[in-house]
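Hello,

I think I submitted the nicotinamide-adenine-dinucleotide job twice by accident. Can you confirm which output corresponds to this input? Input:
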Amino acid sequence: MTTIPSLGYSIEIGDLLQGSLSKLLSEEFSTRKKVIICDENTHENCVPYLTTSIDELANAEIIVLPAGEENKILEICAQVWEALSEYKIQRNDIILNVGGGMITDLGGFVASIYKRGVDYMNIPTSLLAMVDASAGGKTGVDLGVYKNQLGLFSTPRLVVCDNIFLGTLPDEELLWGKAEMLKHGLIQSKEHWLNLKTKPVKDITIEDIAVSVAIKNEIVKADFKEENVRKGLNFGHTIGHALEGFFLEQDKKAHGHCVAWGIVAESLLAAKFGTLPMEEFKEIFAHIQSEYPQIKLEPDNLTHLIELMKHDKKNNSKRINFTTISTIGVSHIDQAFSEKQIQEVLQELFIAH
Ligand SMILES: NC(=O)c1ccc[n+]([C@@H]2O[C@H](COP(=O)([O-])OP(=O)(O)OC[C@H]3O[C@@H](n4cnc5c(N)ncnc54)[C@H](O)[C@@H]3O)[C@@H](O)[C@H]2O)c1
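Support: Only one job matched these inputs. Its output is below.
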């Protein structure tokens, strides 16, 4: 078990039965109600393991949500708040979010708002949630096609990443999670990038997960409210979120899939109009192209995508802000590019020639 201290809570990585979950529940919440929030898939594949192997959770209330990003919305939160109220959940009870990033984002938000804040723990069950969404304190939901527009910073009591849950995760979901790990390498650690680049997604180890978590955690600790260095974690996400929002309206695409191609697009911006050597862009492009299905757009989609980027929370006034890299492992925040430059890159990568 690796324990990584964060801002007032720990991130445990390894066998959850060996960590502090059970002890915390029995010592601090023994007489308190426990509520598990999950989606239909994690209800089937992950919750039974918890309720049968941790005595304190045997009688937990369980709230099951429909799976999928389209359900990370305020209307679903309202249903959860109604259910918490029906179960008479009080401020000193505890909520356990058991799922991917959709559940940890929404569940953290729900807990932080309900009665002005109930304690919550995250038990991420997708690779993406383990290495990224579950720790760091960003909670929230989408507003229409605009990602994560409603939310708040709020920290969990505990995060436990146990790769036992990855056994039932579909292969493509592993791939989407790996995109965030590649990002950690590209912005901070060439060694991590090189290690992951040669590793099929099935071979990703708990130690690789711990490396990603540690990279993210150091950045979050330095800048919790994302006023400066934390923006580095948004590499690939200005274009990635715009793609994800765009495809939410039609042929839905996963967050990690859009981030993978967002990384390529933002690397190309950095290579054409910044200082990233073109050879390094080619290395990034070749790797992502070899693992991630190509994303295709029509010429008249580009203006819409730029509009979506203008809603990105990293922007100030009229600039569209990016995090870029100058070489693999070194990132730079607050880099603005013109709409013309962004269009040129989108055209080159996503429009069939
Ligand atoms: N808060 C943050 O810092 C942060 C960071 C990155 C991403 N995110 C958010 O995370 C979300 C994406 O997360 P995600 O990719 O985990 O999506 P997700 O939660 O929708 O999970 C993907 C799919 O995998 C299923 N699943 C999860 N665990 C499973 C398991 N163990 N076995 C079988 N099926 C399982 C889910 O039911 C779902 O169908 C997005 O909303 C994104 O905005 C948040």
